[in-house]
Amino acid sequence: MVDAGTIAIIALLSVVIVIAVIVVMARAIYTITPYQQGVVTYLGSFRNRRHPNGLILNPGLTYVNPLSTVVRVDLRTQVLEVPRQEVITKDNSPTNVDAIIYIKVVDAPRAIFQVQDYHVATVALAQTTLRSVIGDMELDEVLYNRERINTRLRDILDEATDRWGVRVEAVEIKEVDPVGPVKAAMEEQTSAERQRRAAVLRADGEKRSAILVAEGQKRSRILQAEGVRQSRILEAQGESQRLRILALGAGTLDAKALTVLSLDTLGSVANGQATKIIFPFEISRLMEGASEYLGVSRTVPERSFTTFSDLQAQIGTVDDVLGPIPKQTELLTEIKTIEEEIKADADASTVMVQAGIASKGDDVGDIRPRSLAGPTAPGPRAPIFQDTPPAPPAGTPAPSDPKKKPPAADGP
């Protein structure tokens, strides 16, 4: 029979064997996640006879030699932050700069065997490279050319980390913060620049306003002159037509009718307030003509009546006498044309003002409105009415002067 001491020893040995098996299984079985790779070293060696190129574990559950060591490497894109540091620019302006680096391991064995810690090495290299790149640039270039700085840093770091099996995907400058005195000087410079631009814009506005006012006054004077010219043309045409109509009516009057009209004129003159009346003709001849008209005279002079054909032969047709009379539609069309031109000029002026407001900070260029542009300015508008009456048709005798009286018929 086995005594109790032997049973205790056997139980102890069994527990030791189970623990050893568990330890061996724990060192021999590894689980690699999908974003990792495992690098296996056996007794301090990466390559051996069975694996001349080394053993790399892919994602999944894997069994290895219990005497091997497995190092897991993360293959995801990793974000490293470059600490904030003070950098002296080319124009001796102290500036605080920090950045962010995006890296990714592309060769797991080299990332382990070629560098002690690729995270620390990449950040340290980025710090020195950032100081070197910023030191070769002026402060204005650093502030305005961040994209160029990012690209240059990425190229330099990627070339340096390539032998570590690490790829630099991107580098971004996080903040560029000049020190206090430099920032105050920049603020003063910015304020002065804005004041200069404001003064330029104010002068530009005053210049454009003066040009627009001058243009408006010019258009106003042109329209006023055009209106005066048209009114004078109409007045002259009306006077001409009035004289022609008087001449047409006077063409049919004989000596008797003229005598009656002369007597009526004397009555109108007598109704005035004047104490002295001057007659531009001899009263005795007028009374003699009136007596002959009343039949007191022995004989009444004969005078042949003028026919309508004779009047047309002397002074022309009715259309020639009246001349071109503008219609209401023509007057409305002319007024509408003038209003459209004024509206177009107003729209052009509004566009000019809006363009001046939109050009913030730009240097003021030469302003030449459409009306001052020389060949592009519109020509003078042709009048709708004729200054002179139309010529009579061919073969028609020239009209007689309406101021001259027709020759009196010879008496018997």
Q: What's the alpha carbon Rg, rounded to whole Å?
A: 57 Å
| Distance between the ends | 198 Å
Helix content: 40-55%
Domain count: the total is 3
Structural class: alpha+beta
Could you say which overall geometry the principal axes of the C-alpha atoms support? rod-shaped
Number of strands: 8
Arrangement of strands in the largest sheet: 3-2-5
- Are there runs of 5+ residues with pLDDT below 50, and where? 363-412
Percentage beta strand: 5-15%
Q: What does the oligomeric state look like here?
A: single chain
Number of helices: 11
| SSE pattern | HEEEEEEEHHHHEHHHHHH
Largest sheet: 3 strands, antiparallel
Instruction: Give the integer mean of the pLDDT values.
Output: 75
Structure, explained:
The chain is of the alpha+beta class and 412 residues long. It folds into 3 domains: 4-74, no CATH class; 78-178, Tetrahydropterin Synthase, Chain A, CATH 3.30.479; 196-254 and 303-376. Helix content is 52%, strand content 15%. The chain is built from 11 helices and 8 strands. It has helices at 4-28, 108-113, 118-135, 139-144, 146-161, 180-250, 255-270, 283-294, 308-315, 318-322, 328-358, and strands at 29-32, 36-42, 55-57, 60-63, 68-74, 78-88, 94-105, 166-178. The strands form 3 sheets. A 3-stranded antiparallel β-sheet has the order 3-2-5. A hairpin with a 5-residue loop joins strand 6 (78-88) and strand 7 (94-105). The chain is rod-shaped and about 190 Å long. The termini are far apart. The relative contact order is 0.08. Residues 363-412 have low confidence and may be disordered.
